[in-house]
Amino acid sequence: MKFINKYTISVFSLIVFALFFISNKEDESIVLSSSRFDSMIPKTKSEEITGYKIQVSIENGCGKSGIAKLYTNFLRKNGYDIIDYKNADHFDYKNTKLVFHKRDYSIYSNEIIELLKINPNHVSYNYNENTYYQITLILGEDYNKIDSYKLVSMYYEPF
Asked: What is the DSSP string of 99-152?
């Protein structure tokens, strides 16, 4: 009787496990439905028009530690694809600048200029089809005087 009970329990457990595994096999495949995740990833109006995220490189041109990361956090939360943040070629930039690198910039330029509240006199166009991102944001010494800074400053990381 012990022989039957010991093996019976093992076989029964194996069958239950197999049935559970087979019945959950259909649920096991993960399908990333875009409609499920669209609300989690912010989109810019420009992305809705163009069908792709606007890619931005952010450069610290003033030497203030962490400022490029702060603007990275802000722009990412607003739907931009920040592909790089780093120090600029020097820290002597007086003014914060936006540089557009693609010819189709007019589709997305006004949106980011308005979001960041950049002085239009500090916007330039350096067309370079070999650059894989559309915009470079260079943060100058005036970064904390730009009208959007109060909002941007809320995106500091706590640690």
From this structure: EE-STTGGGTHHHHHHHHT--GGGEEE---TT-SSSEEEEE-TTGGGSTTHHHH
